[in-house]
Amino acid sequence: MDNQQIMAVGSQYLMNTYARFPLALVRGRGSRVWDADGNEYVDMVAGIAVCALGHAHPALVRALEEQAHRLWHCSNLYWIKPQVELAARLCRHSGLARAFFANSGAEANEAAIKLVRKYWHLKGRPACDIVVFRNSFHGRTLAALSATGQEKYQQGFAPLVPGFAFAEFNDLESVEKAVGPHTGAVMVEPVQGEGGVRPADPAFMRGLADLCRRQGLLLVLDEVQTGMGRTGKMFAFQNFGVEPDVVTLAKGLGGGFPVGAMLARGEVAEAFAPGDHASTFGGNPLACAVACEVVDQVASYDVCFNVTEASFYLRGLLEDIARRRSDVVEVRGMGLLLGVEFTREVKPLVERCRQHGLLVIGAGERVLRMVPALTIGRDDIDAAVAILKRALDEWGQQ
Q1: C-alpha 127: how far from chain center
Q2: How far is it, in rounded angstroms, from Cα 109 to Cα 249?
Q3: This prediction's pTM
Q4: How many whole angstroms separate alpha carbon 292 and alpha carbon 75?
Q5: What is the pLDDT of residues 69-96, one digit of tens each?
Q6: Helix (H, G, I), strand (E, B) or coil at 57
Q7: Which DSSP helix (H) or strand (E) runs through 317?
Q8: Are strands 40-43 and 358-359 parallel, antiparallel or unpaired?
Q9: Domain architecture of the chain: domains with CATH
């Protein structure tokens, strides 16, 4: 089937929950993808920060194929060797004590919210509140959605889950005001991705960690988008020198295979007992075998070094564009999670880029987001920026 045929069948049988681009991707290699009509694109989306090692990475293909010949699924009624191996890797690299596995970032955040509340329930403080942030995004399941600080995602889904107090991102004073006698935790993204690619100020993040220590609160970091090397380190919190109590992961963890994880320090993790939380498919052998390979690759010097080098190079090119235009507010981000804020909506620019062979996405109405594979090279970056410049020329300035 070609693009039109796939879209026609999909429009008939799929629920209308996504505003899809008018193309069907059928193949990928590294930082390039091809649609059903044979058109080639430079992929600066990477499945929205999911394909951390690019498309069809040989090591991931090999890990998946080898595990597929052994065992696909057995449920968490039994010990699962790749799951145990993945938990050990993540705990060693993070400094946290235990892991729980799910299938997505929203599920990982749901698990974190439940863990926080169960922890404080056992401490004699049931129904604790969690401080979260305006402009945040934690997922589309009901509790994660309730913790999200963007009303546009919440419309039509009331009543939301109670127990969340909202503060201003990068404003420690507003956090202090939001903390009350029933507060049990603070949940924050090191970089607000869907909220416009807004990095946490280092002083704010350190102040937040200090506040949590002084007040006896749990610090929960949503690293669904920033974890697994995206910022140049295995975890974004390692850039700030803080020690979280809980960390959530997904997206890049499986390199494209669905898997999510919640990590917690020992005392907090012990709040969960058998039956408190579960996932039928969470931590299945296939997902964990692939994720083990992803962790090993990201932990290597080459991948994290490339993130740092590629980020410096790409950001420099974007900042050069910004200096030449009157409609760019700023270039910001961390590692290979970069955004360019414009003075107007970027949806037409995203479409022009697609028409010329470049896949990019927005982060809010006015921010162009780039989250390519962590392995992207300069040739693909140069190709992407060349197309972006062409699209910008056509888009004009305001």
Answers
A1: 28
A2: 8
A3: 0.96
A4: 18
A5: 999 999 999 999 999 999 999 999 999 9
A6: coil
A7: helix 301-323
A8: parallel
A9: 3-56+301-395 (3.90.1150.10), 59-299 (3.40.640.10)
